[in-house]
Amino acid sequence: MSLLLIAASPSLKSRSGALLSAAAERLQHLGLAPDLLRLRDLPAEALLQADLNHPVLREAVAAVARASVVVLATPIYKASYSGLLKVFLDVLPQDGLKGKTVWTLATGGSLAHLLALDYSLLPVLSSLGARSHADSVYACDAQVPKDDEGHYQIQDDIQRRLALSAAQVFERMPRSALDVVKV
């Protein structure tokens, strides 16, 4: 595996999940085949107790270790990324993102939380060893409205930003990983 998408919303359906799905589509258009890790599906007790002997949690940490690129999508709550993401990042080894490219995606109620990625999440990712970062994409609720059937729709301006950042991810993929990707 070389590309891992991490959904950090505690909700089954969410704007950040819709943003992650749109990013995955952009990456697939570039010939990349990402894997998906939904943090909400991890066993809560093992996650909260940092029980790395639990096979599901151990596999989730191993999936991050195998990835060359990690794409994180989180809702912004109270001016910071989700607690679910925080708990998961806490179980990663101190160098758990060493040498990896990271792309962060987030949704929040308004543009007032735009800098939450830069000031709360990126320092944590850097402390875990991430050194390369594709341009973050932040969307406020108005940019990811629900349609009449209740499905989230990503507006064109956000779609354009996703396309530009997905291209950055593609450019930063290790050449060895691209050799095994079917285009």
Helices and strands in order, then pairings?
Layout: E1 3-7, H1 15-29, E2 35-38, H2 44-48, H3 55-66, E3 69-77, E4 80-81, H4 83-91, E5 101-108, H5 116-127, E6 132-140, H6 156-172, H7 175-180
Parallel strand pairs: 1-2, 1-3, 3-5, 5-6
Antiparallel strand pairs: 3-4
Helix pairs in contact: 1-6
Notable characteristics:
single chain; 183 residues; alpha/beta; Rossmann fold; 6-stranded mixed beta sheet; globular; disordered C terminus
Describe this structure in words.
There is one protein chain. With 183 residues, this protein is α/β, with parallel strands linked by helices. It has a single domain (3-176), classed as Flavodoxin domain (Rossmann fold), CATH 3.40.50. The protein is 42% helix and 20% strand. The protein is built from 7 helices and 6 strands; from the N terminus they run βαβααββαβαβαα. Strands 1, 2, 3, 4, 5 and 6 form a 6-stranded mixed beta sheet that branches. Helix 1 packs across helix 6. The radius of gyration is 16 Å and the shape is globular. The two termini are 15 Å apart. Mean pLDDT is 92; it is low at 179-183.
